Amino acid sequence: MRDDVQVLISRERIAERVKELGKQITAEYAGKPLTVAGVLSGGAIFCADLVREIDLPLELAFVRASSYGAGTASSGKVITDFSGAHFAGRHVLIAEDIIDTGRTMAEITRKMLEGGALSVKLCCILDKPCRRVNDVVPDYVGFTVPDGFVVGYGLDYAGKYRNLPFIGRLPQ
Ligand code: IMP
Ligand code: MG
Fold this sequence. Notes:
By secondary structure, the chain is an alpha/beta fold. The chain contains three helices and nine strands.
């Protein structure tokens, strides 16, 4: 499976960057009631690595998001499922794989604030700002990437490649 994929960001570079993000988050959230919310399924792997680089007491939650739309582009409405997780009175840090159009993050953030979160910040391993359709700006970014479909480290193509330890590109 790995032979199909061209490495874009190696396992080592990811690990190094996640460590840096963890340090920064540790400094910025000290003394605050922090919940890290991973976005299933893509954000699960990044979230698991990130929380282990944050040296603070924190709560861990997972939310689900899916977008209905035509083809591979997330052109439609975003459906969220918090599966009973509550964010009232918490500073929430969302851990996501990639921010593309920004629709998913806008909807999750809106719902968390509506549910009483004290603040909501976004942390993503990848940001594709050229694809944005709204004003979503992540607070912590692993790597900024140009347009183009990527897989691995949580990101899938048709349900595959999430378990690659690196981020890569499929042959065109
Ligand atoms: P958006 O920001 O609402 O457009 O959607 C972001 C979601 O689309 C991410 O959580 C991914 O699941 C998916 N996505 C966007 N770009 C890619 C990509 O290049 N590879 C794999 N999934 C992607
Ligand atoms: Mg996703």
